Structure to design on (550 residues):
């Protein structure tokens, strides 16, 4: 296994944590989506995101389940680098769909930044994830497109967008180590450099949305957790905590 | 009907567009509808535990299993809808209104991770035994074809459950005592899944929808799981259980059918919560279905 710098690790963990918690959020929707095909689609997308997280954690910790789980489940809250968008627990399916659209539009750009990475395994992961992501975007876009076409559902989506969009801006917030990681060849450019392209796509999709005056969440370089993180992590560790010495 | 029954006795296979007696159509439909409902409600039972699965890749496997179950429900609803008795939406609405049935085991709550494993191990095995017996002869063609795929996937689920059970059986005291409690809670519901002894006039048998009597299938399951669980040092919560040395055969104690009867009346231990939550979720997302219906109804202006 290649020895990665602290900066490279921090950069990769931020990406992995976002993928992990995004996937985790999808697992909560199976069986309660608006129709059966959507149950299956969300489960399948969640499966992909968890798979991406596993690939990224494995690049950091080695391809071993317990090493991956130490990173995925057992760090202190302060050591996670997730964005508040993926930590957030939303009340409605409309929020989930809007987050799905916004997250996957950003994720595509994020993988592109590491598609020529010098980190062993990362370019290959980007290629695989890129293929899967095109399905995710198509899925989110088809539903958003249809639901924006009907006034009642369009209003719901726009209201959800108002709540979700500020959090989504936080996706682009860099960790401290990002600049160093880029200089080491982990990625080609800061994620923030893709924000204007993403915003243009958001504005085009959600007609007339003003992205100019939104406050981004106070994530403190992704070192601060949102209020939804603790209950989410407690649920994820509930079985594990019954007996940390056990193999489940 | 006599000619139709002769056709079935000769191994005839009925397809959706074929003429069939109303009673046969109704019986096949009820059977498939209940199977579809059970896949969906089973997925909801397991759903509680997916986000809590200990481990990232482990969670992917748990999610994949539940995804399969919901997928089975999806396929089965289509097969059932083709019979023209109810639409898929009609079936879902009946389910969420408590008007149609699903298997007894999904009227119970999975309270611990041990329960989750017990479902994958004991309950899925019971369902698999039943499905195999239907697949063997089933006279309704589309159901038989779908069952082939379902049985293949359920085989994976059972091995998944077995693997998880092994980790627990070879694990710590905390794990083992949790799983013993789960066996105590799930043994009887899983055994009752097969139903009381088949009646002599059971039309499901006469019309070759099922191939074997309930008591035969139940017994097959008991023969497998008693020695397996005892072999791992777990106790079977049946004080009347006895081994017939001459026949080399396990014999269950008397079965109390009251709990099964309760689930049939939608009054099982978790029926109200389970159906209520599913109904509330369905109502909450009505706006999505309404909007998509309207989009589908718009004239194509492109």
């Amino acid at each position: 296994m290649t020895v990665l710098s602290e900066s490279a690790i921090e950069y990769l963990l931020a990406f992995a944590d976002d993928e992990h918690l995004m996937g985790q959020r999808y697992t909560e929707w199976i069986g309660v989506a608006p129709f059966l095909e959507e149950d299956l689609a969300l489960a399948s997308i969640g499966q992909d995101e968890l798979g991406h997280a596993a690939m990224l954690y494995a690049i950091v910790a080695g391809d071993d389940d317990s090493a991956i789980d130490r990173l995925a489940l057992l760090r202190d809250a302060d050591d996670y680098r997730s964005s508040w968008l993926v930590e957030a627990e939303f009340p409605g399916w409309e929020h989930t769909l809007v987050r799905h659209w916004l997250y996957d539009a950003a994720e595509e750009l994020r993988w592109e930044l590491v598609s020529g990475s010098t980190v062993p395994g990362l370019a290959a992961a980007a290629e695989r994830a890129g293929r899967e992501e095109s399905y995710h975007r198509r899925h989110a876009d088809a539903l958003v497109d249809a639901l924006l076409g009907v006034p009642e559902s369009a209003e719901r989506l726009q209201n959800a967008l108002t709540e979700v969009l500020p959090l989504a801006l936080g996706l682009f917030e860099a960790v401290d180590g990002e600049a160093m990681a880029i200089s080491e060849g982990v990625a080609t450019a800061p994620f923030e450099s893709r924000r204007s392209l993403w915003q243009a796509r958001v504005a085009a999709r959600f007609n007339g949305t003003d992205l100019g005056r939104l406050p981004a969440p106070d994530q403190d370089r992704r070192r601060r957790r949102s209020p939804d993180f603790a209950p989410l992590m407690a649920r994820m560790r509930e079985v594990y905590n019954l007996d940390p010495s056990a193999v489940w | 009907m006599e000619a139709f029954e002769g056709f079935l006795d000769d191994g005839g296979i009925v397809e959706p567009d074929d003429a069939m007696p109303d009673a046969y159509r109704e019986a096949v439909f009820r059977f498939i509808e209940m199977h579809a409902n059970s896949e969906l409600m089973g997925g909801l039972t397991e759903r509680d535990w997916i986000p809590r699965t200990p481990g990232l890749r482990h969670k992917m496997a748990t999610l994949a299993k539940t995804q399969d179950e919901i997928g089975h429900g999806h396929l089965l609803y289509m097969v059932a809808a083709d019979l023209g008795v109810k639409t898929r939406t009609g079936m879902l609405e009946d389910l969420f209104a408590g008007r149609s049935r699903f298997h007894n085991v999904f009227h119970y709550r999975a309270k611990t991770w041990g329960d989750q494993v017990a479902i994958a191990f004991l309950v899925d095995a019971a369902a698999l035994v039943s499905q195999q017996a239907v697949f063997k002869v089933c006279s309704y063609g589309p159901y038989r074809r779908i069952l082939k795929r379902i049985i293949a996937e359920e085989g994976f689920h059972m091995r998944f459950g077995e693997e998880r059970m092994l980790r627990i059986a070879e694990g710590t005291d905390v794990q083992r005592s949790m799983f013993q409690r789960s066996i105590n809670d799930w043994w009887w519901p899983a055994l009752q899944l097969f139903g009381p002894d088949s009646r002599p006039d059971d039309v499901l048998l006469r019309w070759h929808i099922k191939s074997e009597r309930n008591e035969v299938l139940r017994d097959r399951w008991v023969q497998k799981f008693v020695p397996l669980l005892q072999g791992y040092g777990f106790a079977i919560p049946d004080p009347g259980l006895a081994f017939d040395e001459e026949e080399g055969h396990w014999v269950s104690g008397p079965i109390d059918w009251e709990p099964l009867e309760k689930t049939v009346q939608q009054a099982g231990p978790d029926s109200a919560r389970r159906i209520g939550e599913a109904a509330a979720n369905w109502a909450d997302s009505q706006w999505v279905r309404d909007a998509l219906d309207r989009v589908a109804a718009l004239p194509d202006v492109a």
